[in-house]
Specification:
- The chain is α+β, with helices and mostly antiparallel strands and 121 residues long.
- The chain has a single domain, classed as 2-Layer Sandwich (Enolase-like, domain 1), CATH 3.30.390.
- 53% of the residues lie in helices and 16% in strands.
- The radius of gyration is 19 Å and the shape is elongated.
- The mean pLDDT is 85.
């Protein structure tokens, strides 16, 4: 194999390894004490209406900022999205990711909303 062919093959391998995300999530929380006063949850690549998980946001309003609440909000987000199976994975896997990544994003958002002293936890 010539050097130019090796370089081209390596470039093709890198290009093939560069793929778009299967699922992406983001969350913002505003807390009043230990209660969720306002919530925003964004989802991408899972067929979420307007890229938002409105039902999960609504569930969180007035709920305690706990792991249980965040897990349930993740489940609600997953229940209401409409992922499509493609080269990045089957719909059930993407729905599982939507739940797990939403829960993680809410956990991070809660730490950040609690203030800088809690950010390191």
């Amino acid at each position: 194999m010539t050097l130019s062919k090796k370089i081209r093959t390596a470039a093709q391998a890198r290009a093939a390894a560069t793929v778009a995300a299967s699922v992406a999530t983001g969350a913002a929380l505003w807390l009043a004490g230990g209660t969720v006063a306002e919530a925003g949850i964004g989802l991408s690549a899972v067929g979420a209406r307007n890229f938002a998980a409105a039902e999960a946001e609504e569930f969180l309003l007035g709920a305690p900022a706990t792991e249980e609440s965040f897990r349930r909000a993740g489940e609600i987000a997953a229940e209401h999205c409409r992922p499509v199976a493609d080269q990045r994975g089957p719909a059930d896997y993407k729905r599982h990711l939507a739940c797990e990544l939403t829960t993680r994003a809410l956990r991070t958002a809660a730490r950040r909303a609690a203030g800088p002293a809690r950010e390191t936890l």
